[in-house]
Amino acid sequence: MAAAARSTDRPGALEITRKLAEICGRPFARFAGPADEVAGRTARWVAVPGGPRAAAEVLRLAAAHDLTVVPRGAGTKIDWGAAPAQVDIMLDTGRLAGVWHEPRDAAVAEIGAGTPLRAVQATLGRTGRRLPVDAPSPGATLGGVLAADEAGPLRHRHGGPCPQLVGVRYLDADGELVSVGEPGTARLGRAAPAAGSDGLFAAASAGGGDAVLGRGDLPGLDVARLLCGSQGGLGVLVSATMRVQAVPAGRVWVSRPLWSPLELPDLVRAVHAAGVEPAAVELDVPAPIPLPRRRIPASHPSVAGRPDHPAVTGRPAVGSLVVLLEGGPSDVAERAERLTAVLGGGAAVNHHAPEWWGRYPFAPGDTALRVDVPATDLHSAVYALRDAAGTPMPVRGSAGIGSAYAALPGALSPERVASILTAVRDVLIARQGRCVVVAAPAEVRRAVDLWGELPALPRLRSAKAHLDPHRRLAPGRLPGGL
Q1: Under DSSP, is residue 195 helix (H, G, I), strand (E, B) or coil?
Q2: Residues 60-75: pLDDT tens digits?
Q3: 373 has pLDDT over 60
Q4: Pick from 407, 348, 358, 383: nearest CA to 264
Q5: Fewer CB near the last or first residue (10 Å), C or N of the chain?
């Protein structure tokens, strides 16, 4: 049957389709179409199970016929990372949706993996609560956000989605439903190797990741948090129990023009020293960067009489630094006033986020990069990207924690992209930083090293061997071809 199922025009393939239809219902099982692909690899079937039991049956069917399975949520990040070696069944989580166990005063909520994050926030918002998660991908599901460990501006204060995780239900490679943490501890599935307190995917996932395992976490969460950033390669998320918090009564954005990336270290230090407890500290550099030099007041003797200096000409800033403050309205107003005085240089208070807030600087078809460095060295990464590319590169991200995204034009050749990556990584490695390729055109993805040096690769290989020994779940999707 396995050999026959490799082609969708053979009787064996029709039998697989029939069995999937029996499990999911006839409208929810079909041969895959051209749009049903994962990083350029087209699936053979699409199955949309109506609940955890049906999803488990899909996985058991795949195991019985030696078929691979790749989960899909809304597909917003389906082209991130490496292409899987093979996609037999695309398991769509769209019907594994809902928000449960969420009384008005609850500090946690259990959420179906296929639930759009916007729907989660709308549901929780009716009782004045929210997830402190603001992934930039429009329409993303919670399962997709966790699988990519995707985080937005709120990561500065709350971390990524993984630190908000207190329990999961997931399906292992054999189709066994595993529950760990809250709301229950029904069964701890196949034991994973110890990941250590620094987490497995913090350095290995294509999305960068914040999957840090604390020594005091609930039993089993070491296994649950291995799923963060795993892109479906270690298990299929069914639901997640997440921490929730009250919606802040007041929010303001304090923006400050950035005249040179060289200002970044001092500005970030000033924000932290001001004691204003920022919820986010974001950088946006959309324009060409001038030669490194600090902005000096026009009255300063060193620039007096120099009509070409930005302080004299009024040349536009190269970007902006924006700080989000949340809390009680009066408290937020006082902190905003204090922060504007500290930042100076045209800092202003706004009651609405800038247009670029919570958005990636790259578009479909671009080669999207992510850099992670100590916050005090982020300006070095900005210059390294510009110098390596030899052209302006939009850079945007969390300046307060030294994590940002950049975009290379999709028309660049794989060889050119590879040379840029090498140059940028050479600069960052001396600063304990790294650069990964988040997404790229197929020809670039095949030709370049997406992740660079991976200290966590041996642990990742061990985890894959324990949790998916037969390589049924998204094979090749993880770093190192796992």
Answers
A1: coil
A2: 999 999 999 999 999 9
A3: yes
A4: 383
A5: N
Segment holding 434, helix H or strand E: strand 434-439
For the record, the structure tokens of 171 come out as 């399906």
Higher-pLDDT residue of 393, 141: 141
| CA gap 403, 208 in Å, rounded | 9
386, 393 Cβ separation under 8 angstroms: yes
The label of the residue with tokens 């039998």 reads: 15
- What is the rounded end-to-end Cα distance, in angstroms, of the chain? 25
* Distance of alpha carbon 447 from alpha carbon 419, whole angstroms: 11
Q: Strands of 259-408 (E only): list them.
A: 280-285, 319-327, 348-350, 367-372, 395-398, 403-408
Among candidate residues 91, 62, 43, 72, the one with its CA nearest the CA of residue 173: 62
Strand, coil or helix: 372: strand
The type of residue at 284 is D
Which letter does DSSP use for residue 73 in this model? S
Structure token pair of residue 392: 């302006």
- β-strands 89-92, 45-47: how paired? parallel
| pTM, rounded to two decimals | 0.86
Question: Tens digits of per-residue pLDDT, 270-290?
Answer: 999 999 999 999 999 996 655
Q: What φ, ψ does residue 122 adopt, rounded to 5°?
A: -65, -40
Between CA 439 and CA 407 the distance in angstroms is 10
Sign of the C-alpha dihedral, residues 67, 72, 76, 82? negative
Provide mean pLDDT across the span 430-446: 93
Query: Among 120, 104, 100, 131, which residue's Cα sits nearest to residue 244?
Result: 131
Cα 94–Cα 96–Cα 99 angle in degrees, nearest 5 = 115
